[in-house]
Amino acid sequence: MADSDRRYDVIVIGAGLSGLKTALELKKAGKSVLVLEARDRVGGRSMPGEICGQTVDFGGQWVGPQQTQLLAQARELGIETRPQYTEGANLLSRHGRVSRYTSTPKLPLPSLVELGLIERRWRRDIAALPLGAPWSAERAREWDALSLESWALRHVRTEGARYFVRTIAGALLCIDTSQISYLHFLEMLRSCGGLETMIGVEGGAQQDKFAGGAWQIPKRLADILGADIELENPVHAVEQDAAGVRVFAARGACLARHVVVAVPPIFASRIHFAPGLPARRAGLMQRMPMGAVIKVHIAYETPFWRQAGLSGSAVSGDRHLGTVFDQSLGDDGIGVLVGLIEARHAVALSAFDPDARRAAVVDDLVHYFGAAASRPIGYVEQDWLAEPWSLGGYAAHMPPGVMTGYGDTLREPCGRIHWAGTEAATEFPGYLEGALRAGIRAADVLRQAA
Amino acid sequence: MADSDRRYDVIVIGAGLSGLKTALELKKAGKSVLVLEARDRVGGRSMPGEICGQTVDFGGQWVGPQQTQLLAQARELGIETRPQYTEGANLLSRHGRVSRYTSTPKLPLPSLVELGLIERRWRRDIAALPLGAPWSAERAREWDALSLESWALRHVRTEGARYFVRTIAGALLCIDTSQISYLHFLEMLRSCGGLETMIGVEGGAQQDKFAGGAWQIPKRLADILGADIELENPVHAVEQDAAGVRVFAARGACLARHVVVAVPPIFASRIHFAPGLPARRAGLMQRMPMGAVIKVHIAYETPFWRQAGLSGSAVSGDRHLGTVFDQSLGDDGIGVLVGLIEARHAVALSAFDPDARRAAVVDDLVHYFGAAASRPIGYVEQDWLAEPWSLGGYAAHMPPGVMTGYGDTLREPCGRIHWAGTEAATEFPGYLEGALRAGIRAADVLRQAA
């Protein structure tokens, strides 16, 4: 080891919310920490944006009452929440027809009946998943051999109910039903509080937003850490032996007693580990691709939909814009809508040139909200697929066979290498809440160990 | 650009058979080439080994009469073939019972009847795949939503036939049936000459071996290229603009007009591309994990199985050692068996300590060949999962949803970036033949372009 090598108790790879939380908790406990970040900013999948002078979230933004760690963290930092606007009717677009609804989307009655049965079945299947170890459920192998799509083809009869299953896979996980295993889908439902919580606004995961933006949370944590974070310094390799770890980053090597990898599995798989990781852990990391999402904001002179009795919420499984919410600050100022382009729609629209993509978005908004939507005064977009250090969002998912073959290595340390990032959370993986929880857990382990 | 930057017509990333072939073909055409290789050796998934003084292949080794490019290449280099030993009975182990067979494994009659029907069905489904574009088959979306396992659960009734399907997925592709889409499985059968060719010895893909080892082929190509190859120089990033590409490797940057990426998708995904690759290409690369395989060689005083009327070939879906072949040089010298530990068995045994793994292998050989197998005089192993620049083998596969969502980007150049490697072959992907063909195709395109 060269004398010039810098030494720390813990090196954290990734300055997203998860890594920042780990670092800060350890620093508070008196440990010396260094956070290495590939990007030129902190926050990972949390990121600020702006439209017509209004600050918005280009990344994760909502919070629900179940997300206790995130709420506590925000409170501690003095960041307040604001309720998601919900007054008026929501919209569902299906096969080109837009219908209004308040609590239950308008589907044919047999489909609604079947949806009730499906939800009951999911609740029953979820109840059979051992906490933190879904791979050891009695029917794990059977459920993991199926994609959610082939599960639906087998168990769902009505077209409306199949449409619903496909739509929520896009809206909740930014994936197509053919790509995720039924077992991982069940585990996502379980760990994120159940279907109702995940799709819900009032009482659910979209109940509130953070005044000024959720991105302020990682930003403030990073401000406290200050010089302990190095941006634009991607890690290429990690070597470990009995004495410690050596981390090779773009701007040189440093030493530590432990390392916490707080990036999505596909980016963890880019790091060259020596000695090599166990086959099952390495196998997991090459088997967890990211979902696909583009987030857009569109501004109008006024929130005209409110006057028309609409909440601004819209959902569809066949339009580019699968999910829309009101993002206005009030009745009096400009109107802002936030839209999410999910799964195969995101993959397709990522290839459009920016003008064509904007046109496709405005087309969909006219489809939902009428001609008044055709004259936006502002448009901004964040294509997460095009972010080289994200390659998609919201999070990584498991195709068939992965959970039972490799899933139990998700949180298991490999010697001095520990795993954080929202994917490693047992509760709310894929959410800011999960990022925070996985970060806290990693810090808890290392507070004693380091 | 710094003056010190070196300039080439083409930079090839990866000195496996595919990359070496590309480089050599372009060099012959008068182009300046540089091959950058992460490992300390050439050959990729082709690699020499030794047991009791006998040279063997730790990687790909067999060749069949359909593999015309590989045979022609070997001939040109003066490397001869030797037939795989086939005299005597083959063995099948199923549920703990070993049975002898010559052409057809001993399965219950209803299973054999069903196997005939399955093969007919596969042949019919394969015939519906457009050449080079299986993603555009009429039923592509339906077939791609299914894992091979859920296809089998739906269409295969007898336990024996299901066992067969699972066993060939392991033996041919080193994967578990839950992990590959039925569409990609069909495309693998089609592109590799059909099931009979793939599992066959005489007239099939295991008909011949190369005297002295298949690894000599990349080795000789590399010898001709000489200083145009740089070992232990992994590529971190590739930037391209209208003028050319800049490749950032561990030991510095160099410039070229074009780059050929001749590594498996998971390793291509480790390279940081600027500007970012199109979402669908980047999506593909994070969705094609490697199969899992450990290759072992075991030496005995004599090829004792030959005297017992056995060919040395054994196959099983439930033993660790899923495939065994005779690797002896003749009747008179030592006896050598080569064994392949595939799919979940490889993942499991990779975690064993070396002594326990050897003991498990010898146990299986005693199970197949009797007590005489308990006293080997030599044992060597190559765990491809533990090779940091392979992370598995034989090749990458597509989980459900990948072929229809992303598959058409497999061979599509991204500006100045071209794709080789066996996975990019239209014929014999996963084989040495495919590596060669993909290399030739990349060179054909660039001979005109560069």
UniProtKB/TrEMBL annotation, chains A, B:
Name of the protein described by the UniProt record: Amine oxidase domain-containing protein
The family database entries (InterPro entries) matched by this protein are listed as:
Amino_oxidase (IPR002937), FAD/NAD-bd_sf (IPR036188), Flavin_amine_oxidase (IPR001613), Flavin_MAO (IPR050703)
Q: Which domain of life is it from?
A: Bacteria
Under the heading Gene3D superfamilies, the entry gives:
3.90.660.10, FAD/NAD(P)-binding domain, Guanine Nucleotide Dissociation Inhibitor, domain 1
Q: Which family does it belong to?
A: Belongs to the flavin monoamine oxidase family.
UniProt organism field: Sphingopyxis macrogoltabida (Sphingomonas macrogoltabidus)
Q: Which residues form the Amine oxidase domain?
A: 17-445
Q: Which cofactor does it need?
A: FAD
Task: Give the signal peptide range.
Answer: none
The answer on whether this UniProt entry bears the keyword Oxidoreductase reads yes
